[in-house]
Design a protein that fits this description.
Radius of gyration: 30 Å
Helix content: 10-25%
Low-confidence stretches: none
Strand content: over 45%
Number of helices: 1
Oligomer: single chain
Strand order of the largest sheet: 1-2-4-5-6-7-8-9
Distance between the termini: 71 Å
Length: 198
């Protein structure tokens, strides 16, 4: 069928323009739209610790009020309930704790290293408060609560994050030692899909 040359010219030009537009859209979609995001594995935990022993303790008195002292404790914890993260079971923990106490009530900040069966570690930071009441043995019954945060790890736990809450209870003897001490923790860990580069 006969068509005017002008019609054929503009038809061909339109087709070329549409092909170029389709190619441009394909390029833009491929470069602008982000790749699908893989969700980070999340591990919910609930575990209880026992105080195994205090390996070092140092205190300094503060003169603004009777019984006010700041102290540094190095402690060893052992699990009384299994803590498993990403298929690895925890074997023990060591903590360095700073306390600011009036009697046995006050504030705490601690850093702990949690060791696992594969040799890797997870690092925690704890913050919270202690409150004590007199007991019949001359010491005080103490309870505490606060928050914890996972601030990283090694090996398989590199890049690990997490947070939760803790509660503790036990006795502080008349000479300042802890006994029958336990801590319960609940929270969540998140493991990156691809661990960050070292």
């Amino acid at each position: 069928m006969w068509r005017p040359r002008v019609f054929i010219y503009y038809r061909n030009r339109y087709r070329k323009t549409m092909r170029r537009a389709r190619l441009l859209m394909m390029v833009l979609v491929g470069t602008v739209l982000p790749a699908p995001v893989r969700s980070e594995p999340t591990y919910a935990v609930a575990t209880t610790w026992r105080l195994a022993r205090t390996t070092a303790k140092s205190t300094a008195l503060v003169e603004d009020a009777p019984g006010h002292e700041v102290g540094l404790l190095n402690i060893v914890l052992e699990r009384s309930e299994a803590l498993v993260i990403a298929g690895q079971q925890m074997t023990g923990a060591r903590c360095s704790e700073v306390v600011d106490l009036l009697g046995v009530s006050g504030f705490t900040s601690a850093y702990c290293t949690l060791r696992f069966g594969n040799g890797d570690a997870v690092f925690h930071h704890y913050r919270g408060e202690y409150h004590g009441v007199a007991s019949g043995t001359g010491g005080q019954q103490v309870s505490g609560q606060g928050t914890w945060q996972c601030v990283g790890g090694t090996g398989a736990f590199r890049g690990m994050t997490g947070e939760g809450r803790w509660e503790s209870s036990g006795e502080v003897t008349a000479d300042g030692l802890r006994q029958n001490w336990s801590r319960t923790e609940r929270g969540n860990y998140r493991q990156p899909v691809t661990p960050p580069a070292k």
